[in-house]
Amino acid sequence: MEKNVCSSCKKRITNIEGSVQFQCPKCGKSTITRCKNCREIAAKYKCHDCGFIGPN
Ligand SMILES: [Zn+2]
Ligand SMILES: [Zn+2]
Questions:
Q1: Which ligand has the nearest atom to the CA of 23?
Q2: What is the sign of the dihedral through the CA atoms of 48, 5, 3 and 40?
Q3: How far is the CA of 56 from the centre of ligand 2 (A)?
Q4: Strands, E, within 1-56: which ranges?
Q5: In the chain, how many H helices and how many E strands?
Q6: What values do phi and psi take at 44, rounded to 5?
């Protein structure tokens, strides 16, 4: 799977400032990537390993 795409909108985040990558808060196996825009609008993301849906 492409690592540098936003988990919510699938945009490439390679050169976008303010994007973040972190491990899934539930299972810690999968890397979640979020672009600045999706952080600002609090867009949902889903872990592919455990199905956790955040940020809520
Ligand atoms: Zn995004
Ligand atoms: Zn997970």
A1: 2
A2: negative
A3: 14
A4: 20-23, 31-34, 45-46, 53-54
A5: 1, 4
A6: -75, 150
CA of 20 to the centre of ligand 2 (A): 16
- The number of the ligand nearest the C-alpha atom of 6 reads 1
Which tokens in the block code for residue 2?
């492409």
Q: How far is the CA of 54 from the centre of ligand 2 (A)?
A: 10
21-35 pLDDT, tens digit per residue, is 999 999 999 999 999
Please tell me the predicted confidence (pLDDT) of residue 16: 74
By the 8 A CB rule, do 46 and 9 touch? no
Q: In degrees to the nearest 10, what's the CA dihedral of 47, 34, 30, 2? A: 110
